[in-house]
Amino acid sequence: MMIVLIVCEARNDRNLRDDKGAMEDYDKAIELDPNYASAYYLRAELHYQQSNYQGAFEDADRSIQLDPDYPSAYYQRGQARSELGDYEGAIKDYEQAIQLTPSNFCGYYNWAELYSDLGYARANLGDYQGAIKDYNTAIQKDPSRIRYCSTYNNRGNARYNLGDYEGAIEDYSKEISFYKNGYNNAVYYINRGNAYNDLRNYQKAIEDYNHAIKIADKYPDVYEYRGLTRYQVGDKLGAIEDLEKAADLYQHGGFVEYYQEALNLIQSFNVTDKDAIIEDIQEIPETVNDSPTEVETTNKSAANPPILNNRVEDTNKENSQGISEKD
After folding, report:
1. How far apart, in whole angstroms, are the C-alpha atoms of residue 265 and residue 281?
2. Cα 294 from Cα 55, distance rounded (Å)
3. pLDDT at 5
């Protein structure tokens, strides 16, 4: 009885945004009963929301050892594994959670999240067809909650990677329709702009980049994308202006390599060898961050790939939708 009261106190702490107090309560509950699976699971969830993915994995793993039929613990361990880059392990955990979750389950996660996360893990292993199948299931099983999972955006990314740019545009448009001017919509506008770009509909691409800049004007890659697209339509001055802005943001963010690449692109616009320009354009960085921030760019490999947005609630915790404590 005492442990139940302590866990309830932790729940109250979390509702009051007192994560430190909640963590202390979970620690106390586990100290009183080291075999209490729910306490490990709830602490794993808190670790996860604090971006302590290794801690989340270890606690969820311990919870499963104590209760092998605990579906929420498998889902939590799968999320932690996904964040740690173990997508194969995440897929196994999500599939186990699906098998154990009753059809009338009502808890922290829902079918839309479960299948969307499963699809995301498959996509990160390059199984885009399998990912699309999972995203379709998520949409069919839980259409009322799908707007909180970025499922249409992620399915659009999978379609994009399969060369189905028109299908990708359809999905990005659906995602945009949920939140007309939401901050995460910058991601979706950029992704749709990139798809339009691949279809050589440069005007539509520029319009989407414009929308993204209105929402997140300190995001360097979108200026780079728009600058390169402006060059394609003959607006050389506009292209240079955008690339200079991108270079400034890269420099202020400490991204020296991308800053130099932006400068190289500007210089390339002053040469007459078109092949040299195209070669430079192919070197722009790939953005794989989950949500546009002031400067958040990682690896590069293609001209204008989609931004891989997984879950709104994981990347923008302060304004997340649908977050509730697991029951």
Report:
1. 7
2. 28
3. 79
* Type of residue found at 242: D
* Mean confidence (pLDDT) of the chain: 82
Instruction: Say if domain 182-315 classifies as CATH 1.10.10.10.
Output: no
Q: How many Å apart are CA 237 and CA 17, to the nearest integer?
A: 49
State whether the Cα torsion 188-189-194-198 is positive or negative: positive
Closest CA to 115 of 89, 92, 133: 133
Token readout for 43 is: 């602490």
What gap in Å lies between CA 294 and CA 224, rounded to an integer? Answer: 14
CATH homologous superfamily, domain 110-180: Tetratricopeptide repeat domain (1.25.40.10)
The answer on pLDDT for 226 being more than 70 is yes
pLDDT value of residue 108: 64
Could you tell me the residue ranges of all domains in the chain? Answer: 1-104, 110-180, 182-315
Region 156-164 average pLDDT = 96
The confidence band for 91, taking pLDDT boundaries of 50, 70 and 90, is very high
Calpha distance 318→251 (Å, rounded): 27
Q: Look at the block and give the residue holding tokens 């059809």.
A: 103
CB neighbour burial string for 35-70, b if at least 16 within 10 angstroms, e if fewer? ebbbbbbbbbbbbbbeebbebbbbbbbbbbebbeeb
Contact 198, 166 (CB under 8 A): no
Q: Residue 258: its pLDDT value, please?
A: 93
The region of weakest confidence among 59-63, 239-243, 306-310, 322-326 is 322-326
Q: Do domains 110-180 and 182-315 have the same CATH topology?
A: yes
Residues 6+ apart with CB under 8 A from 31: none
Tokens 């498998």 label which residue?
Answer: 74
What CATH fold (topology level) applies to the domain 1-104? 1.25.40
**For residue 265, pLDDT beyond 80:** yes
Contact 82, 51 (CB under 8 A): no
Sign of CA dihedral 122, 100, 149, 167: positive
